[in-house]
Amino acid sequence: MTITRPHRWAILKVAADETFYRVFAMWRGGYLDGDSWRVNSGVTRVEETDDAFLFHGLSGSIYECAKGAYGLTAYGASVISSALKGGVAVMPEDTDWLSLIE
User: Fold this and answer.
1) Phi-psi region of 87 (alpha: psi -120 to 50; beta: other; left: phi over 0)
2) Is the pTM of this model over 0.85?
3) Could you tell me the end-to-end alpha-carbon distance of the chain, in angstroms, rounded to an integer?
4) Which parts of 1-102 are beta strand (E)?
5) Distance from C-alpha of 19 to C-alpha of 48, rounded to nearest angstrom
6) DSSP code at position 45
C-alpha cells in the first residue's frame, strides 16, 4: 500500500457510462524541478482523520489529502483545463467527501 501526500488536491468527477471520482494531486516544485501532478486510479472509499481525508484508490494506493489544501495550483489549473471540456468536473470544496462513494 502506497500513501501519497500531495501539496494541493482536487476531486474530479468523471461522467462516462457511470460516474466515478478521481484525486487530482499536485506538488509544488523547486528551483531545479518543476511542479508536478498525478491522478489516482479512482476513489473506492473515503476516510477522515483530524487533519486529512484518506482517499483509497482502485490500485490500493491511499491519497492522504490535507484539509485546507483543497484547490488547484496555477499549474494544475492549466493542466486540467482541457479535461474539463470532456465530461470532467472539479468538485466544489464544500463537498461531503465521506458520502462521495456510496
Assistant:
1) left
2) yes
3) 23
4) 3-4, 8-15, 19-27, 36-39, 43-48, 52-57, 62-66, 88-90
5) 22
6) E
- Separation between Cα atoms, residue 97 and residue 86, nearest integer Å: 23
How many alpha carbons lie under 13 Å from residue 46 in its C-beta half-sphere?
18
The answer to whether the CB of 97 falls within 8 A of the CB of 53 is yes
From 33, 28, 36, 35, select the one nearest 7 (Cα to Cα). Answer: 28
Question: What ranges do the domains of the chain cover?
Answer: 3-87
- Pairing mode of beta strands 43-48, 3-4: unpaired
How does residue 19 score in pLDDT terms, banded at 50, 70 and 90?
confident
Predicted pLDDT of residue 15? 82
Is 55 within 8 Å of 43 (Cβ atoms)? yes
Residue for grid cell 481525508: 53
Written as nine digits, the cell of 14 is 468523471
Residues paired with residue 64 on neighbouring β-strands, in sequence order: 54
Specify the pLDDT at position 59.
93
